[in-house]
Amino acid sequence: MRLLPLASGGPRRGSPRHLPSCSPALLLLLCGCLGVSRVAAADSRRPNVVLLLADDQDEVLGGMTPLKKTKALIGEMGMTFSSAYVPSALCCPSRASILTGKYPHNHHVVNNTLEGNCSSKSWQKIEEPNTFPAILRSVCGYQTFFAGKYLNEYGAPDAGGLAHVPLGWSYWYALEKNSKYYNYTLSINGKARKHGENYSVDYLTDVLANVSLDFLDYKSNSEPFFMMISTPAPHSPWTAAPQYQNTFQNVFAPRNKNFNIHGTNKHWLIRQAKTPMTNSSIQFLDNAFRKRWQTLLSVDDLVEKLVKRLEFNGELNNTYIFYTSDNGYHTGQFSLPIDKRQLYEFDIKVPLLVRGPGIKPNQTTKMLVANIDLGPTILDIAGYNLNKTQMDGMSFLPILKGASNLTWRSDVLVEYQGEGRNVTDPTCPSLSPGVSQCFPDCVCEDAYNNTYACVRTMSHLWNLQYCEFDDQEVFVEVYNLTADPHQINNIAKSIDPELLGKMNYRLMMLQSCSGPTCRTPGVFDPGYRFDPRLMFSNHGTVRTRRFSKHLL
């Protein structure tokens, strides 16, 4: 595939590209990239950034195990985050959070549909101009390159089709809609190109690798670059490359403590799962687990090729490389066959590995980060003044650089709006209306009132998760993950009522936060202040949090 820039007359290797808004000489004074001069006098020596994003790759169930080269080339050469979370365990809301640095209640992408604001015209008009890649391009003078899955509804005819190219991208190679490996269409700078099922020229992970290497060879050397490579793996349909289709034959989904057990004292959606699972369900999820790992081997090859090319071009030592996923996954936990969307660690926790200038090798940190922090961190690397953004996240560049006596957050917000229609599934007439994502044995992974919000807290005293559901019960789940890492025992009815009230209040605060107010001290931070009078309405009743009902 021949690499082409978004606009005619774009950069080639060794050729300059002029910015429409600011020349490099004016960036420091006029455009807000305040840290440029600290990095180097020459514009070309500002750090480059690569963001590698997997699709549905878990951390809790061993999702990084197949990626031996990725762990060696990124994790062992830099820092691994053991407490990295997503604010919503679903593709489109999570990806929107990465791009905007905002929680879902602020970017208003609530699910994977156009009606849920996934790549809708409203998203394109309001949020896309303010994503961190748009800032990198228009303000900081970076070449920006995208390849792979963007948002689940990207390319929908009702939202501009494949001709739509989001603001801020110099090179655009985006997949139409959701992940596939063969028989897909790419938008190449706004023009459709169909691919078939010939492995040598069509396998999407390899196509993304090749076009990324082309970019590194043909880009301009006069500007730093940002690359975002978003692979289909390990998302369904789990189509492995031919050379990997017989690997991991003796691998099965982990039989951990919450595998194939009843979700006692949990939300009704979890309780409805059938325990024990049928043999056919277990065989299905074992096969899915194995195939997921197989698809990741091509991602591992992509990472190796990318790192080697950066090294060959003399750019590796000046390039930050991030590897992460948009959400986790489960295979049989609490007898739920396969999916994401739930509030538990296996769905909301993701891998995060980073290498780059100034990051010491072989480090692991327990500092609590979320994917809303990726945008602020990358803008910080570029020298942008973060006070000029409306982002909810924080830059973790000081963590990467080993800053001492760092004041950091102790909690993050997780929120999800359930999906389901007010009709009964004809294949499962015994189930009530409103369920969705149902399997043949009538176990459903989602419902209209699977709408929840959680405070995920990590401090030196507590490793806690507090969640509330927007249903008639206002159902509450609380877990002490120090004593119960598999989240089997809901302690909502036994925990100290005073702590429960504080967590309820903190949840309300985070669910209504925006920008700096999302970074206020948590319940266990020294600067935290709790006024119990705010827990009551004017009528003397306990106030409960209000869930957003975003409608386009």
TrEMBL record:
<keyword id="KW-0458">Lysosome</keyword>
<comment type="similarity">
    <text>Belongs to the sulfatase family.</text>
</comment>
<keyword id="KW-0479">Metal-binding</keyword>
<keyword id="KW-0106">Calcium</keyword>
<dbReference type="GO" id="GO:0008449">
    <property type="term" value="F:N-acetylglucosamine-6-sulfatase activity"/>
</dbReference>
<keyword id="KW-0325">Glycoprotein</keyword>
<dbReference type="InterPro" id="IPR017850">
    <property type="entry name" value="Alkaline_phosphatase_core_sf"/>
</dbReference>
<feature type="modified residue" description="3-oxoalanine (Cys)">
    <location>
        <position position="91"/>
    </location>
</feature>
<keyword id="KW-0732">Signal</keyword>
<dbReference type="GO" id="GO:0005764">
    <property type="term" value="C:lysosome"/>
</dbReference>
<keyword id="KW-0378">Hydrolase</keyword>
<dbReference type="InterPro" id="IPR000917">
    <property type="entry name" value="Sulfatase_N"/>
</dbReference>
<dbReference type="Pfam" id="PF00884">
    <property type="entry name" value="Sulfatase"/>
</dbReference>
<feature type="signal peptide">
    <location>
        <begin position="1"/>
        <end position="41"/>
    </location>
</feature>
<comment type="function">
    <text>Hydrolyzes 6-sulfate groups in N-acetyl-d-glucosaminide units of heparin sulfate and keratan sulfate.</text>
</comment>
<dbReference type="GO" id="GO:0030200">
    <property type="term" value="P:heparan sulfate proteoglycan catabolic process"/>
</dbReference>
<keyword id="KW-0597">Phosphoprotein</keyword>
<dbReference type="InterPro" id="IPR024607">
    <property type="entry name" value="Sulfatase_CS"/>
</dbReference>
<protein>
    <recommendedName>
        <fullName>N-acetylglucosamine-6-sulfatase</fullName>
        <ecNumber>3.1.6.14</ecNumber>
    </recommendedName>
</protein>
<dbReference type="GO" id="GO:0030203">
    <property type="term" value="P:glycosaminoglycan metabolic process"/>
</dbReference>
<dbReference type="GO" id="GO:0005539">
    <property type="term" value="F:glycosaminoglycan binding"/>
</dbReference>
<feature type="domain" description="Sulfatase N-terminal">
    <location>
        <begin position="47"/>
        <end position="384"/>
    </location>
</feature>
<dbReference type="InterPro" id="IPR012251">
    <property type="entry name" value="GlcNAc_6-SO4ase"/>
</dbReference>
<dbReference type="GO" id="GO:0046872">
    <property type="term" value="F:metal ion binding"/>
</dbReference>
